[in-house]
Amino acid sequence: MSFKIIPDDSPILRNPAFYNVYPIHNETSCNNFAINDLLTVSSNVRCIDDSYGRLFDASGNYLRFVYGVSKEMPLYQEIQGLDIVDTLRVPYRKIPVYAANSKQDIKQAIVDISRKNPSYKVLIRGQTKTYYIDRPAQEKQILFGDSDAKEPSFLPSHLRQSFDPKFLQCMWQNQGDILLNDLRHDCKHLLSVEQFREFSQDAMRISRTTYHMPFSLGIAQHYGMPSVGLDLTDSVSVASWFATKSIRTSNEGLASISDIEFENGFEPIIFIFRCPRDAVFDYQLLKPRHSPEGRPDRQNAWFGHVGWGEAKNQLGSYLCCAFRLTKKYIESNLNVNNEYYFPSRDQDPILDYFFKMRGMEKYEGEAKRALSGVYFIA
Q: Is 87 within 8 Å of 202 (Cβ atoms)?
């Protein structure tokens, strides 16, 4: 990913929505300096940051500090009484990273951000460490006025694993249709007549509307397969689990869980995002009524369609603040039942379905590689 020059005849300019380009062009921070000769470009040439789909028209001028000068910017989400242990940079924001000694620290932040942003959905994500966008120092200087800026990376799995996003969308929509049909067959013997009618109505609704894409991609993501988005949650307990547990998966799809250790390079962290409501999807609202409970239910699953086209790190632009978990926090979250968040195949029919697909010989090439990501806790 980089800040790159694109010509006037680029298809990105002709069809910006198709390439996930941000609709407002030439947006610069109020915390930047006057333009100077840091980056010179010729007239009628535009530049785009393909991490966020941000487009700038140079028009013979010079670009400098378009996302704001780090040292001149206030913290985006200040929380009194908590220690700041680091800062991160995303477009137009300087993000504080606080030390968290308890879940209550994070829960209070979620309440405050939600109250101030009622039109958005506040969601979180736990990780065992922070990953960063690999930009050249000069580029960081151009964008942030800081060659050492730490810019968090939230790349979706299709980019990390080099999958074609159009192929994945087609494949998971097909798999979603087969899955719904299988669930309909299984549920017919488990539900009452009225419940089965409601289940069938919802399954039909998903298959024939725009709900089909987020449902299919979200299901794939939460069972370990690549997608064009990321899994999120509204549960601090779920985010804490993913921040403090290491998952290792064998070639056969068997996963083992272990507690992380600071000495091994882990820095557990929970990120808080202020998400536009049309960019994230609640699994509970998408799935058919009376569906059997599975992994997404246990993990309070949300799916963020936030990493495609020219905005590969789109989720980063929604970041409000983050919490680095202390040893005290981790020690209070060790006694967690791993099997609860990852029910077994006999308890989770969706997992059982995908594992059967994983073993079928008819799948080969990229389809086989995508399905090989399915895993369950041994």
A: no
> Which stretches in the chain have pLDDT values below 50?
33-42, 60
What pLDDT score was predicted for residue 307? Answer: 87
**Number of Cβ within a 10 Å radius of residue 375:** 22
Residue 180 lies in a domain: yes
Q: Does residue 339 lie in a domain region? A: yes
User: Hey, what's the torsion of the CAs at 249, 151, 308, 7, to 10 degrees?
Assistant: -140
Count CB neighbours of 144 within 10 A.
27
- How far is the first Cα of the chain from the last one, in angstroms, to the nearest whole number? 37
In the chain, count H helices and then E strands: 14, 14
For strand 93-100 and strand 84-90, is the pairing parallel, antiparallel, or unpaired?
antiparallel
Q: DSSP for 133-153?
A: ----HHHHHHHHS-TT---B-
**Which residue, chain included where needed, has tokens 């202020």?**
274
**Antiparallel, parallel or unpaired: β 93-100 and 319-325:** parallel
Taking only the tens place, the pLDDT of each residue in 253-304 is: 999 998 887 666 789 999 999 999 999 999 998 899 999 999 999 999 999 9
- What is the span of the domain harbouring residue 206? 157-377
Q: Is residue 302 part of a domain?
A: yes
Q: Cα separation of 111 and 251, whole Å? A: 41
Residue 70 maps to a domain: no
For 46, the enclosing helix (H) or strand (E) is strand 46-49
Return the DSSP state at 337: -
φ, ψ dihedrals at 367, nearest 5°: -65, -45
Identify which of 101, 145, 25, 105 has the alpha carbon closest to the alpha carbon of residue 325: 101
C-alpha distances out from residue 38 to 6, 27, 43, 65, 140, Å: 19, 18, 16, 9, 12
